[in-house]
């Protein structure tokens, strides 16, 4: 019938098919999918071995497993450090310091023998080698009469009396600091707390002062710049970063700083001490936060051309500073060996000073030829590599528009926590 569609009836499975019907229903070889034709031949021929195919999964889960272990380790370290400070903090409390005969003797010595503010340095027996190295470096600059070493055990006290009898001491035995310790541990926090409480006690007596560290190389005399005479600020700190344009410029380094006695600085250190007693954070992180968020205290910063950190050695080494702090190592022994590789080891085997090495190190700094420069082959230590990585991450965070400037005053407070590998 016209217009009527004729549909071909498909036979049931029980009916036999004609040859034409079988040909119509069976796909030709040219119509067969390529994957179907080659399935049996290619499946095993091109398939990667099982371990290779699952390697990305191993990396993914392995990374998060290690990360989790580091987080657990850091959490345990934080809890242990805070407990350690709470347990031993009273031994370096402000009341105990101020009411002691030793502190009264210290104040009388400052009144009688110091025309200019003193510089305090902390010392236990495990930093004696580093201290000898520092004093060999600085003895020709005529600055030893400004130093007062806070000796924390009798071994350090007696060794200093024998080796450097003309250098003054404030002996404050602290059993919680008798053993060696590393970065971000409980005793490390105790050093910070002792410095803060000593600062409070000195400020209450009207004494301005410097705080310094022995892991610093002096090319020139820092005291010649007379930072103590500038009344435009309450405190002046060294700073980290490459230069004044660095993302971390005006972040306190915490190795060398001057404090002028006054009500503003007294409040500054009272709050610092209170936070150190309860928080797992470095003192420089709290200093950065208070300097950038408080309006009462006036903080200033020593220019990078005068005081720099180890980062200067990984620049083009222009504008050699007066002093450079050489930190980022794990302990005193390894630090001194690392400094020797860079040409900053100045003691002979018999304990005497090698003035020739001191002059050579100063000349290399002046010429920009320190062996640790970025074009040199000297490979950084593990501790320094970690710090370089963390500083890179921090610079990226601070550089972030809008968010970075908001986080800059607060990021150092969680520095210990973010450094999960240390």
What are the defining features of this structure?
alpha/beta; globular; disordered N terminus; Nucl-diP-sugar_transferase
Helix and strand topology:
Layout: H1 19-25, H2 34-42, H3 50-53, H4 55-88, H5 94-98, H6 101-113, E1 119-123, H7 128-138, E2 147-151, H8 154-163, E3 168-171, H9 186-204, E4 209-211, E5 216-218, E6 235-239, E7 252-259, H10 263-276, H11 283-293, E8 299-301, E9 307-308, E10 323-325, H12 332-341, H13 355-367, H14 382-399, H15 403-407, H16 415-418
Parallel strand pairs: 1-2, 1-4, 2-3, 6-8, 9-10
Antiparallel strand pairs: 4-7, 5-10, 6-7
Describe this structure in words.
Residues 143-339 form the Nucleotide-diphospho-sugar transferase domain. This is Nucleotide-diphospho-sugar transferase domain-containing protein. It comes from Mesorhabditis spiculigera. The protein has 422 residues and is α/β, with parallel strands linked by helices. The protein has 16 helices and ten strands. It has helices spanning 19-25, 34-42, 50-53, 55-88, 94-98, 101-113, 128-138, 154-163, 186-204, 263-276, 283-293, 332-341, 355-367, 382-399, 403-407, 415-418; strands at 119-123, 147-151, 168-171, 209-211, 216-218, 235-239, 252-259, 299-301, 307-308, 323-325. A seven-stranded mixed β-sheet has the order 3-2-1-4-7-6-8, sandwiched between helices. A three-stranded mixed β-sheet has the order 5-10-9. Helix 10 (263-276) packs across helix 11 (283-293). The longest helix has 34 residues, at 55-88. It is globular, with a radius of gyration of 33 Å. The protein starts with 18 loop residues before the first helix and ends with a helix. The model is unreliable at 1-6 and 373-377 (pLDDT under 50).
């Amino acid at each position: 019938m016209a217009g009527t569609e004729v549909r071909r009836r498909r036979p049931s499975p029980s009916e036999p098919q004609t040859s034409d019907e079988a040909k119509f229903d069976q796909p030709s070889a040219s119509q067969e999918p390529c994957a179907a034709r080659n399935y049996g031949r290619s499946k095993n021929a091109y398939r990667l071995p099982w371990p290779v195919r699952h390697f990305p999964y191993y990396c993914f889960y392995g990374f998060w497993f290690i990360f989790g272990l580091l987080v657990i380790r850091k959490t345990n370290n934080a809890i242990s450090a805070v407990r350690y400070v709470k347990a031993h903090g009273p031994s370096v409390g402000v009341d105990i310091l101020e009411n002691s005969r030793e502190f009264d003797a210290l104040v009388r010595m400052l009144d009688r023998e110091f025309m200019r503010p003193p510089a305090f340095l902390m010392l236990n027996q495990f930093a004696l080698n580093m201290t000898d190295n520092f004093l060999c470096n600085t003895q020709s600059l005529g600055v030893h009469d400004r130093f007062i070493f806070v000796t924390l055990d009798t071994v350090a006290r007696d060794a200093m009396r024998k080796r450097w009898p003309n250098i003054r001491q404030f002996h404050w035995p602290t059993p919680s600091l008798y053993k060696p310790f590393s970065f971000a541990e409980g005793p490390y926090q105790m050093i910070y707390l002792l410095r803060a409480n000593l600062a409070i006690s000195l400020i209450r007596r009207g004494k301005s002062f410097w705080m310094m560290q022995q892991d610093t190389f002096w090319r020139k005399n820092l005291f010649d710049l007379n930072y103590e005479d500038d009344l435009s600020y309450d405190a002046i700190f060294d700073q980290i970063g490459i230069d004044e344009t660095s993302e971390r410029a005006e972040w306190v380094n915490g190795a060398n700083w001057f404090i002028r006695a006054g009500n503003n600085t007294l409040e500054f250190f009272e709050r610092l001490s209170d936070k150190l007693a309860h928080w797992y954070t470095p003192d420089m992180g709290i200093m950065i936060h208070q300097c950038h968020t408080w309006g009462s205290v006036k903080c200033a910063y020593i220019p990078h051309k005068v005081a720099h950190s180890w980062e200067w050695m990984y620049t083009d080494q222009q504008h050699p500073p007066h002093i450079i702090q050489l930190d980022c190592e794990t302990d005193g022994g390894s630090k001194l060996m690392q400094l020797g590789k860079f040409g900053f080891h100045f003691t002979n085997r018999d304990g005497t000073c090698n003035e020739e090495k001191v002059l050579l190190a100063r000349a290399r700094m002046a010429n920009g030829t320190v062996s640790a420069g970025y074009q040199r082959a000297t490979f950084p230590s593990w501790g320094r590599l970690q710090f370089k990585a963390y500083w890179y991450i921090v610079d990226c965070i601070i550089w972030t528009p809008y968010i970075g400037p908001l986080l800059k005053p607060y990021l150092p407070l969680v520095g210990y926590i973010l450094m999960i590998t240390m």
